[in-house]
Amino acid sequence: MMRYISIFFLSLLAISNVRCVAQMASSNQGISNKPGIITGADQTEKYLPYLKGKRIGLVANQSSMIDKKSSVDSLVSLGIKIVKVFGPEHGFRGNASNGAVVSDEKDAKTGIPIISLYGKNEKPTKEQLADIDLMVFDIQDVGCRYYTNINTLEYVMEACAENNKELLILDRPNPNGYVIDGPVMTDDKFKSAIGIHYTPMTHGMTIGEFAQYLNGEGYLKKQCKINIIKVANYNHDMPYLLPIYPSPNLNTQQAVMLFPSLCMYEGTAINEGRGTYMPFTILGAPALEGKYSFSYKPISIRGMSERPNHKDAVCYGLDLRNYDINKLRKSRQINLSWLIELYNAYPDKANFFTPGRAGRDVSAFDLRIGTDQLRKQIIAGMSEADIRKSWEPGLQKFKAIRAKYLLYPD
């Protein structure tokens, strides 16, 4: 009986993956990939000879694909010896909820051990790297400070440097590579699991470029030896439709593009679509009843959001599923107007921003933004223009730093 139950749930997962891939393809609003873009992973001729005969550790998840097949399956079929796979937040298969602890396991198909970097340890240990000759990093990122793949990248680089292991990075386009925006984090007190780098909210770099930034800006005690297989025929301003969703709650292209603007609401009384099958494309709260006609009810969804904000309560607010994301591309900015609008509409302003954890003098919102200034500016009623003006000195300084590490033109 358990065998049939397992098959049933695996079938549901497969159907869900197909549905989400279809959603990614259908929500592009006229955006299409430029001909000729080839990810680093798909340029096997450039790195397969280097992998041959080595014991490989692979940092990967469901977005790690070679020629439309799992990187693990593809590399094994090509005669590469993968001794361990390391999975980031959401797990190797990408089906764990946000923030959920992920356990170590074995890949059912290949028998390769899967080591979680979002469980007992975030950084590979000396013991875990002992039988590895070369580490390979192949994960799709979305270009935001609060998307934890860049944290994993730093921890992997740090471990490789400490244990004299080289890291090969199979680079992928950044779907939000056109936007460098938001306040720059400058104070250690705003560091957390959702932000450890002194960047704006969106940094406009690929994983390969970010690795060079980490090496060059002294984030590591010892520089990591890295080798990057670049994306072919790519620049930061090019649209890029993701063939596979990068995490359970970024299940459409619309969500990927809106994520930089909507993730900040996790530090507020506003639900950002978690607990629905439309995450990061809708915004709402029960307290906004009567002020907005659009409504929805967040529920517990296993593998996506088990405890969403306002679980089982009807929320009222903004439906952004058909918002023209080309407006974001043209502005090259995070949308700030929705935050100002919803704060002004919210009846209990004293409880709009979520308090921080006990013992910390920063709010949950501050940790996502990387500073307490935006929260204070919103409360003070500053205009969007004046808020953006206050970001400019930090953004200009960061852009000058960023320019040193770019592999692709803007």
Automatic annotation (TrEMBL):
Please list the residue ranges annotated as the Peptidoglycan beta-N-acetylmuramidase NamZ C-terminal domain: 257-408
Q: Where is the Peptidoglycan beta-N-acetylmuramidase NamZ N-terminal domain?
A: 56-253
> Listed GO molecular functions?
peptidoglycan beta-N-acetylmuramidase activity
Q: Which UniProt keywords apply?
A: Signal
Q: Which domain of life is it from?
A: Bacteria
Signal peptide residue numbers: 1-20
Q: Does the keyword Phosphoprotein apply?
A: no
Protein name (database record): DUF1343 domain-containing protein
Upper lineage ranks? Bacteria, Pseudomonadati, Bacteroidota, Sphingobacteriia, Sphingobacteriales
